[in-house]
Amino acid sequence: MKRILTLLFLLPLFAAGQCDTVTSISATAIDHDGATISFTTPNAHLYYVILYNGLRQNVNDPGGPYPAMVTAPLTGLTPSTEYTYSIVAYCSPTDSAE
């Protein structure tokens, strides 16, 4: 019975629908093989994933205070190539927002 109560206690921390999307997304410091992606996170998340042209980069949460600015360098880009990127915020292994 103790194990069930512990699980029930933890469920509200990761309830579906509580994961917020990031805002103020921008790309700066663009050069021949890289760029810096910046965005604002309204609250804590486990981590973020930046998806760009079939590539994936995990980014750790900054740890607050929130809202917080997150920056991540993207490397290995090809010159004269247009990249489309999106950011997925993960609140739990099964709850995300894009």
Essential attributes:
9% helix, disordered N terminus, 98 residues, 3-stranded antiparallel beta sheet, single chain, mainly beta, 4-stranded antiparallel beta sheet
Largest sheet: 4 strands, antiparallel
Considering DSSP H and I runs of 4 or more, what fraction of the residues is helical?
under 10%
What is the overall pLDDT average? 79
Strand order of the largest sheet: 4-3-6-7
- Contiguous runs where pLDDT drops below 50 for at least 5 residues: 1-17
SS-based class: mainly beta
Number of helices: 1
Termini Cα gap? 37 Å
Element string (H = helix, E = strand): HEEEEEEE
How does this model look, in words?
The chain is mainly beta. Helices cover about 10% and strands about 45% of the residues. The chain is built from one helix and seven strands. The protein has a four-stranded antiparallel β-sheet, with no helix packed on it. A hairpin with a 2-residue loop joins strand 3 (about 45-50) and strand 4. The protein is globular and about 40 Å long. The termini are far apart. Mean pLDDT is about 80; it is low at about 1-15.
Q: What's a quick, concise take on this entry?
A:
The protein has one helix and seven strands; from the N terminus they run αβββββββ.
